Amino acid sequence: MAVFTRVSDADLTDWLTNYSLGSLLELHGIPEGIENTNYFVTTRNGRFVLTLFEKLTPHELPFFLNLMAHLARHGIPCPAPMADSRNALLGELNGKPACIATRLHGQSVTQPTVKQCAAMGAMLGQMHIAGQSFAGQMPDPRGAAWREDASQAVMKFLSEENAALLHSEVTLHAEHPLADIPRGIIHADLFRDNVLMDGERVGGLVDFYFACSGEWLYDVAITVNDWCLGSEGLLNEERTRALLNAYHLVRPFTAKEAELWPQTLRVAALRFWLSRLYDLYLPRDGELVNPRDPEPFKRILQNHIEVQPVWL
After folding, report:
1. Which backbone phi and psi does 35 adopt, to 5 degrees?
2. Quick check: 220 and 124 in contact, CB under 8 A?
3. Residue 87: left (phi > 0), alpha (psi -120 to 50), or beta?
4. What is the pLDDT of residue 232?
5. At 72, which helix (H) or strand (E)?
6. Is 152 a member of any domain?
7. Are residues 35 and 140 in the same domain?
8. Which of 10, 50, 129, 219 is the most buried (most CB within 10 A)?
9. Inside any domain, residue 221
């Protein structure tokens, strides 16, 4: 279970005295996730998610918590952080920064339908528009500088073939960054397991802790690379077009975005191939962490290099 910091019933009962959420009824660790410690919490007043932050600092966290509060107020189904008796969204529990937020309805899907992909595309467009009025800014923590540093760190573990591919892609995107396309707040990690589906509608977007300022098209590419994947690491055309068309109806793509779509898919695949390589070869100490296999994103990246991608 990806729980780095243990929280007992007694720990949480004491901590909850700072909130008006009622007494603790249940506490369960959440096995998914590799960045933070998460627990499902049930109190007499409702269901919540407790997060203890293992990497992010108290200086960085207000951006994410304020963003979620902003999006929730603007109709985006995302966790709403709860304020404590001092009206603060961020606290400390067992030596770690911590927050407690509303728990949303729905469940993640492993095989999304065409209609679910369309719903995801529309919701992503709505989130981008809602984020335009958010004043906060956050540089991408997984941008060009990180790609260079992380690639150097893992290179010694790789085969000659993989090292050559990684070097060439990191170099390409450093020399040709995405430019002159619409930017704003992006989620940057909208995989299927970070979206709760309620039938064919989106019930919730979760795990905003990679959110940052960036190109909206990059956010779309990250989402497409997971939601619309078919066999052998190739994009399923019907699901891809459904997601892109639904997004386009909410926030129309520009001609420049159409031009940069192949490159954007590649850099989105590179980001997750590289992060999974890093987690595999340079894991963080934890009670039990199961790093995700980097190979699927290597195949996705290679396919994007070799195959003309699906577009509108």
Report:
1. -105, -35
2. yes
3. left
4. 85
5. helix 61-73
6. yes
7. no
8. 219
9. yes
User: CA-CA distance, 77 to 156, in Å (whole number)?
Assistant: 42
Domain boundary residue, one of 69, 102, 135:
102
Contact between 273 and 294 under an 8 Å Cβ cutoff? The reply is yes
Q: Do 95 and 118 have their domain in common?
A: no
Label residue 128 by pLDDT band (50, 70, 90).
Answer: very high
**4 located within any domain:** no
Which letter does DSSP use for residue 85 in this model? Answer: T
Residue with tokens 């902003």: 70
Structure tokens at 145: 């500088």
DSSP state of 119: H
Host H or E run for residue 198: strand 195-198
Domain final residue, candidates 44, 74, 102:
102
Core vs surface per residue 178-191: b (16+ CB within 10 A) or e: beebeebbbbbbbe
* Contact criterion met (CB below 8 Å) for 290 and 283: no
Cβ–Cβ contacts within 10 Å for residue 94, how many?
14
33-42, 61-70, 186-195, 235-244: segment of lowest average pLDDT: 33-42
Task: At 244, give phi and psi (nearest 5°).
Answer: -65, -45
- Domain containing residue 88: CATH number: 3.30.200.20
Q: Which helix (H) or strand (E) holds 253?
A: none
∠ Cα 254 67 24 (to 5°): 140
Q: Give the pLDDT confidence of 56-75 residue by residue, as tens digits.
A: 999 999 999 999 999 999 99
User: Do 172 and 66 sit in the same domain of this protein?
Assistant: no
Q: Could you list the residue range(s) of the whole structural domain that residue 297 is in?
A: 114-306
**Nearest one of 211, 238, 216 to 227, comparing CA atoms:** 238
Report the C-alpha gap between 260 and 265 in whole angstroms: 9
User: What's the pTM?
Assistant: 0.94
10-32 residues labelled b (16+ CB within 10 A) or e (exposed): eebeebbeebebeebeebeebee
What CATH code is carried by the domain that includes residue 175? 3.90.1200.10
DSSP-assigned letters across all residues of 48-71: EEEEEESS--TTTHHHHHHHHHHH
List the end-to-end C-alpha distance of the chain, in Å, as a whole number. Answer: 40
